[in-house]
Amino acid sequence: MTARLLRYVLTVLAAVVFVSPGAGAQEDGKKPDGASTPAPYDTFVKDAQVSNGLITVVRKAGKIYLAIPKSQLGADFIETSVPQTGLGGFGPAPGEPYVAPARVMRFERVDDRIVIRWPNTFARVDPNTPRAIGAGESLPASVVAVTPIVAESANAVVIGTTPFLDDVANLKAQFDAVASKPGHSYKLDPDRSFFTEAKAFPQNTILRVSQTWSTDSPDTIDNAPDPRSIEVKMTYNFIAAPADGYMARIGDPRVGYFEQPLLDFQHDANPTRNVYYISRWNFRPATPGQPSQAGNPLVFTLSDDIPPEYRDSVRDALLKWNDAFTRIGILGAVQVE
Questions:
Q1: Is 13's pLDDT higher than 70?
Q2: Which residue among 14, 36, 220, 321 has its CA within the 20 to 30 Å range from the CA of 57?
Q3: C-alpha–C-alpha distance, residues 156 and 69, integer Å
């Protein structure tokens, strides 16, 4: 009997030893002081630096947090992921906008956690209809991360920004395209990834991250001091989704546009269900139908890496587009800063 009891105790102790690491791994980003509920907002920000904006940035004890208005939970934000630095010609260039598409992102509350999600936006449906329900059930969303609420007020919740130290933009695909064989591929090193900047503005909030991608066997990238360790800086931009009544326009295959395909579940007449919308800018002319000033001009900012001798040429080339827009009655459509 004693031997059986001893074996039982040893078995239980072994189970505790092997199960505990897994349980701890689920507590990433746990709340301050191990609290089981979010801390009061006023207490949390007492010694913090707060930058108000679309999504308020909170800096506290060397960490960065986002304070999301409760009115914005579940609302649409536009999220972009753009590299600040390149791979010396082996991959995307600095400012390359095609590493990851601009996507709708939502912050949705589930109990005391926030689900950061890219909802599926590839279907065109009439809301609150059986077709809308069917499309929602059939087309998957993508979850970026689930993170705890660390502080809360009557009007906002605060979350950590650790999920954005991960490979949100799927930059690994760019490195995989460079590596000649899987054994030479690069992996994101979380121990050498950190935030470099966080700014909040009325219409957008920016997070900038330095990531280190590492491999033990580099075989292609040869223009870094140590090709085993490649630093890439990323900019994540959260933008307020416009709600100005701007109407999308269907593309004409006879004209060259950049297009966004959607699946049309509003009608059954289209056998392919594919419908293509053009990418365009809402200039908001003051008096539509008559020559008038653009209320929302397309503003280009010249990068500081453009050599001085080329800056005037680049500026003039961009402003030349105003000739075309003037012909259709939109004045001052393009501006350069």
A1: no
A2: 36
A3: 4
